[in-house]
Amino acid sequence: MSPTSRKIIHIDMDAFYASVEQRDDPALRGKPVVVAWRGARSVVCAASYEARKFGVRSAMPAVRAERLCPQAIFVPPDFGRYKAVSRQVREIFARHTDLIEPLSLDEAYLDVTTSTALPSATATAEAIRAAIRAETQLTASAGVAPNKFLAKIASDWNKPDGLFVIRPHQVMEFLAPLPVGRLPGVGKVMEAKLTEMGIATVGELRAFAAAELEQRFGRWGRRLHELSLGIDEHAVEPDRPTLQVSAEDTFEHDLTLDELEPHIRRLAEKTWAAHEREAAGTHGRIARTVVLKLKTADFHTLTRSLTPSTRPASAEELADLACALRARVERPADSRYRLVGVGLSGFVEQDSFVAQGDLFERG
Question: Which intervals of the chain form a coiled coil (predicted)?
């Protein structure tokens, strides 16, 4: 199948966890709801649109969310309930295509290129959104486009409860005025580097030759050029299992190993929250291996990993193990690092893991 002939839908549930809470408890409707445990070490899993008006966002420390919105109602997450609703939504997707790639409990890509039940991808997206509303009493936003990265941008265009379509002949014109930060993989650090080159929009990025971008940024430079042209040949991959969940951060100023601990602990919170979503998600898998990633001031990437006899059971345990992995970095004590990341890998099925644990306990 030619990538240019694909019809991709990206469905994104609107403020999913918070919306489920508001649906199930009428007293929460219209109120700023933050799905998170209270406490200095907790992070926000989701925020209702009423809370987002105050600047509250997912993955934000809960204490900061409370400062931004003192009147927020904190609700502890119930991943079992969210997983049940996610299964309902997945069943709706399956009525229209077998090519479904879940990204999390609340979003997925659908390839409806060969779907013939409805006259167009747009009609399919509308039918899916209507069914979600009727059967779950929740809303979803959808993006329709010739490829995955454009569909994801489109689904965010008219949020909440919106639909946006990018047709093949509109791609170049649509992308040109967008800030380069809207492209997948372009974070604040990369955006700053592009700004230094006089590149603020996708159209300005497009004016640079692929070879010039590749010389400056390696293979990522060629990928940037492709994205500026609306090219994304990644196919929708049904039921792709997660290999690793992680969070990383690039510093404004390079740090020594000893200075990394607070950053490792903060990133461990984010990684643990992502792991909990994976454990509650479609695949229901848990990780056993802790990974510490470092990038040196001269751009060398180092990784250290550990598979403990007992897997981490909390964000705090994950942070302790990740911090301990620094002792395995055999570099001078004054070495500096521009990036640190904390990950979990080695995913196994929960049932399999529990069964193995029972065998060891009986032995």
Answer: none
